[in-house]
Amino acid sequence: MKIINYILFIAVLSSSLSCKKYVEIEDPKDQLATGTVFTTDATATAAMVGIYSDMNASNYQFANVLTSFTCAMAADEFVYASVLANFDEFKNNALTSGNGYVGLMWSSPYNFIYRSNAVIEGVSASGTLSPAVKNQLLGEAKFMRAFCHFYLVNFFGDVPLILNTDVIANSSKPRTPKAEVYAAIIQDLKDAKSLLVSAYPGNGERTRPNKTAATLLLSRVYLYTGDNALAEAESTDVIAATTQYSLLKNADSNNAAHMTKAFLKNSLEAVWQLQVVNTLGGRNTWEGNTLIPTGAPLYRLTKGSDGLESGFEAGDKRFSNWVGNYTTTAAPIVTHYYPFKYKVRLGPAGAAVTEYSMILRFAEAYLIRAEARVGLNRLSDAKDDLNVIRDRAGLAPLAVAATPAIAMAQVEQERRTELFSEWGHRWFDLKRWKSLSGDPSKSRADDILPKSKSSWKSTAVLFPIPIEAMRTNPNMIQNPGYN
Q: Of 25, 353, 418, 427, most Cβ neighbours within 10 A?
């Protein structure tokens, strides 16, 4: 019980210190005793939004730079143009269980899961919260628990499914089969969808999940688990929310809906964002602060005929608007390209923040539905969804694909060029898609990654269980290829 109280104390303390902008509530500094956390709407809300604050409080964490960057390097999106042992292991798909970033990608989601469980238990037991706040917080906590389990299962495969705050029992829990973890994720997201409303809570910014966020993540989970009919249905629900969301499309350089503005805070493409807590020096997002160079970029799109640098069609506005470039001044003259979806490295001193970190984005709903429709052999409908994405990118519309295989190649192309450098999409796609070779034991990663990674092994599609988890849990079993 002491550790539960500690978790709740830290949640409220962190929110009172650093995330007051997330919700407009009075600072609960006089109500930090854990016994009162769930007696008022304000302190209960603070316990939940403290999680979001901590997710984005510092750089190179699971919930900002780390997931996007490590997965991009594990796939074929970009490389780190310097020597850093932890990054080199991802770039070469030669991870060790002692890699510090792998450790964070395990421990941070589980920390947020424990805190979400504490909120679920505390809110459920409370008899003093208003019904609307109670539903909202239960919905958010279940969404967050599902979100973290989703990333854990995609990083590591089978992982312990943690649904309560019983630390003693959970500390020795064995790995849960992936199918069972996914079933729990789906149930949490269905619950979240029923509990949450379409409006964004608190101050109305898109920094706390709403019903659409739960629906979009649920559609992704159904897609990943092969339920194309439900993936189509849920993504259609997201697309139907047209009054709140739209793709930002170029008209002229001053157009408020210009695609360069997709990653602004509360943009019409944002389904869920995180607000940076540390704005020291004019920082807006950790992604922009890290990716945008002051000289030669450290993070560079992969080169060569199979690299992302040459993966865009001619005239693709995603390349001209979302990719930056730097040309060296000394011989040999080389132009390097880097992700440039975020436009602010450091804003003017004292200026208001204009960008938030994007977690869930509206465009994904069209890509999910397109892929689901290919799986349902509805190739004309799939083409229509892909053409919505292509139209915004300034590309010619596709004709109906002659075969499902051709349609899937079109889906892969659009997902690669639309979602690059965002939250591991490319890495997860390569892992979950079957190899074109017909070998059922192989994935699309086995088709693609050996072209640029001479030491590629199929077992690299799963990250190793961190050494600390292996040391402290007697029932933990290491992933194949890392013993």
A: 427
